[in-house]
Amino acid sequence: MTFAFDPTDWHVVPERLFAELKVGEIFRAPSRTLTDAHASAFQTVSCDNHPIHYDVGYAKRFGHSAPVVHGLQVLAFTAPGATLLPHNFGSIFIAFTELSAKFVKEVHAGDTLYSALEIVSLTPMGDRGEVKTDVTVHNQDGDLVLKGSHTYLLRTA
């Protein structure tokens, strides 16, 4: 069987319409174990050089068992592109418009993180629609380390 390859028609999952999305759908990211190298790379990119993130002695003096992974690095684990969510949106995606996060428990190198995005509301607004998701990150012990939300704007027509 021969077919003409079209890179513009290459999809990881079938694209869906706004009306096909469902409240309660959960999009999970693969687990990832953080290492000191991840923390060092994030420190370089973020320019956050606070010793709480890399100095064992400093962290212990302030009651931490080990250096604390940057909160924004943990937040990055909720990136929609780490899941299949934006692939489901496909060409109806307009913008990622809002996010919130609460850091519930500290994260250390060696922790394995599990992030998920759950659709909690779908609001049609004419030819556009708003999707809100709850986002969570748990560690290997099942502890919630981050909770928050994302909002996306999509085309409905």
Automatic annotation (TrEMBL):
MaoC-like domain mapped to chain residues: 24-137
Record Gene3D superfamilies: Hotdog Thioesterase
InterPro entries: HotDog_dom_sf, MaoC-like_dom, MCH/BMMD
PANTHER family from the UniProt entry: BETA-METHYLMALYL-COA DEHYDRATASE, MONOAMINE OXIDASE-RELATED
The protein's name: MaoC family dehydratase
Species of origin: Sphingomonas abietis
